């Protein structure tokens, strides 16, 4: 794998990471590497995660979805590298997911999603097998969440909303699933989902008002809960 050490913003419009083969280990390696340089992506420079390999090799359906989601939400240029006349309906449905594509083409926010928790490994671990699993970023329509299951089997994944820097404490958020294209109620303080092995969950969260009164503890992360006057409360 060939990688560039300088950021795209420092040197020009793009810096490229080379995807050698259309396999899950290669995808995980690139996601891991780019998790440390997401700040290099904005309107004036993009980290190029290399050509999309969806439709090539033996990637599973879930791996293809993860490939498309990670590349699009990290704001990589999206170059399709397969024979479109030979792809199946499942591959076509991935490449034409307009809700995911809309995040990549957001006219207001150009930056990449970034990890807010690594998950399997301690935060900031460089691990090509199990890259960061919990990511978020801004969009013109709300906060984008990506939950990536790097295990070979399905796993329950969960996070507190305020782990993302773009979520406000004391608020509830409506949930839009960007793969099922459904509105899935509201989240208060946390989200828990089962994600297939090598699969992904992509959500769009929108502020839906104050969280319900009377919740205990008074904050989702009780040891960080403070009143407006700065004193500790709850717990």
From TrEMBL:
<keyword id="KW-0378">Hydrolase</keyword>
<dbReference type="InterPro" id="IPR041233">
    <property type="entry name" value="Melibiase_C"/>
</dbReference>
<dbReference type="Pfam" id="PF16499">
    <property type="entry name" value="Melibiase_2"/>
</dbReference>
<dbReference type="InterPro" id="IPR013780">
    <property type="entry name" value="Glyco_hydro_b"/>
</dbReference>
<dbReference type="InterPro" id="IPR002241">
    <property type="entry name" value="Glyco_hydro_27"/>
</dbReference>
<dbReference type="InterPro" id="IPR013785">
    <property type="entry name" value="Aldolase_TIM"/>
</dbReference>
<feature type="domain" description="Alpha galactosidase C-terminal">
    <location>
        <begin position="130"/>
        <end position="205"/>
    </location>
</feature>
<comment type="similarity">
    <text>Belongs to the glycosyl hydrolase 27 family.</text>
</comment>
<keyword id="KW-0732">Signal</keyword>
<keyword id="KW-0326">Glycosidase</keyword>
<dbReference type="GO" id="GO:0005975">
    <property type="term" value="P:carbohydrate metabolic process"/>
</dbReference>
<protein>
    <recommendedName>
        <fullName>Alpha-galactosidase</fullName>
        <ecNumber>3.2.1.22</ecNumber>
    </recommendedName>
</protein>
<keyword id="KW-1015">Disulfide bond</keyword>
<dbReference type="Pfam" id="PF17801">
    <property type="entry name" value="Melibiase_C"/>
</dbReference>
<dbReference type="InterPro" id="IPR017853">
    <property type="entry name" value="GH"/>
</dbReference>
<dbReference type="GO" id="GO:0004557">
    <property type="term" value="F:alpha-galactosidase activity"/>
</dbReference>
